[in-house]
């Protein structure tokens, strides 16, 4: 008997199967999602036909073509069209008109991203810019990892600074002094664990710290 309590797999339509869209579509399938991949280039669609749940050749600026493929029935959509800005914008606008509640759109510039946001994209992704910014932070050596979110919020992985060592986090005043929150902690040779007020930081510990972007960057400078 089927397990009725098991969650249904997410259904995602990925439009544009270039390097970014194709890789994303394959990752979604690998994590259990059902993916409809669409691209205007037959050779590209053929390349991913065996990897995705469904793959189709279509002009994604054509409302009728998208309706025939059942795109309005999806709850999640990704517009991964790269250099064709007109197709990117028109496709995103159609998805918004369909009322799809979760639309991610790839942008090639901040201006492109602002346009996509105005016409209905709920999430705008700038892969090249975001990766460049992340790598820049890592190259400086201040951080072991860096993730920036919207609304000027970020998380960093960094070595515990000297002023945090030897006292419980609840007494270290890191939040009041630096505006950051220690989310998790890793001791050498151990796994990450959630940080608590009574957690005592030791020299060499790795911290996951969250807060406003400039504040977590300044905190990482303390190491």
TrEMBL record:
Gene3D superfamilies per the UniProt record, alphabetical: NAD(P)-binding Rossmann-like Domain (3.40.50.720), Regulator of K+ conductance, C-terminal domain (3.30.70.1450)
GO terms (BP aspect): potassium ion transport
Domain of life of the native organism: Bacteria
InterPro entries: NAD(P)-bd_dom_sf, RCK_C, RCK_C_sf, RCK_N, Trk_Ktr_HKT_K-transport
Alphabetized GO MF terms: monoatomic cation transmembrane transporter activity
Annotated ranges, domain RCK C-terminal: 141-223
Domain RCK N-terminal residues, every copy: 9-126
Family matches, as PANTHER family: KTR SYSTEM POTASSIUM UPTAKE PROTEIN C, POTASSIUM CHANNEL PROTEIN 2-RELATED-RELATED
Protein name: Trk system potassium uptake protein TrkA
Taxonomy of the source species: Bacteria, Bacillati, Actinomycetota, Actinomycetes, Pseudonocardiales
């Amino acid at each position: 008997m089927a397990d009725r309590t098991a969650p249904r797999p997410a259904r995602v339509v990925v439009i544009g199967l270039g390097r970014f869209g194709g890789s994303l579509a394959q990752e979604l399938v690998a994590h259990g999602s059902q993916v409809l991949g669409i691209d205007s280039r037959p050779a590209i669609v053929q390349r991913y036909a065996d990897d995705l749940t469904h793959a189709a050749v279509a002009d994604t600026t054509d409302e009728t073509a998208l309706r025939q493929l059942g795109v309005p029935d999806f709850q999640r959509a990704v517009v991964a069209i790269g250099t064709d800005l007109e197709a990117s914008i028109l496709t995103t606008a159609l998805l918004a008109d369909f009322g799809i509640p979760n639309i991610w759109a790839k942008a090639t510039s901040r201006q492109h991203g602002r346009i996509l946001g105005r016409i209905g994209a709920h999430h705008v992704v700038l892969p090249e810019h975001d990766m460049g910014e992340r790598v820049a932070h890592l190259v400086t050596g201040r951080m072991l990892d860096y993730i920036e979110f919207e609304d000027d919020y970020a998380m960093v992985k960094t070595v515990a600074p000297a002023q945090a060592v030897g006292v419980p986090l609840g007494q270290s005043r890191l939040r009041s002094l630096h505006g950051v929150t220690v989310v998790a902690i890793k001791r050498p040779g151990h796994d990450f664990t959630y940080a608590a007020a009574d957690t005592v930081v030791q020299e060499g510990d790795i911290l996951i710290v969250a807060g406003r972007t400039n504040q977590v960057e300044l905190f990482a400078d303390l190491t």
